[in-house]
Design goal:
The protein is of the alpha+beta class and about 100 residues long. It has helices at about 15-25, 75-100, and strands spanning about 1-10, 35-45, 50-60, 65-70. Strands 1-2-3-4 form a four-stranded mixed sheet, covered by helices on one side. The longest helix is centred in the C-terminal third of the chain and has 25 residues, at about 75-100. The two termini are about 25 Å apart.
């Protein structure tokens, strides 16, 4: 699966890119027909400690899923987003199987 990583208004660390690729590559276990994924990292201009937002968009044949998470760290947001996408992909796979 191809993972496109983009940071909005800041420079992204290589460690964060590697962490994101590692986490999202695990999604192939749940649905093997993932075409691509786009990850957007954003720093929100708020006084909250939870100001790091991650948007993950996954494309599968005939559908597209998007998850947006805001946490204290980007790693935490990626982790949380990956768990949400995992559940979404499992549901989608069951739905596709039901139609066969």
């Amino acid at each position: 699966m191809k993972v496109n990583v983009q940071a909005v208004n800041f420079n992204i660390d290589k460690k964060l890119i590697d962490f994101t690729n590692e986490k999202l590559s695990k999604l192939d276990k749940y649905f093997d027909k993932i075409v691509s994924s786009d990850v957007f990292f954003k720093l929100e201009n708020t006084s909250d400690k939870e100001n790091k937002t991650v948007e993950i968009k996954i494309q599968v044949p005939g559908d597209e899923f998007m998850v947006k998470k805001t946490c204290k760290t980007f790693e935490e947001a990626v982790d949380s987003g990956e768990e949400s996408l995992e559940r979404i992909l499992v549901k989608h796979k069951e739905k596709v199987r039901a139609h066969l």
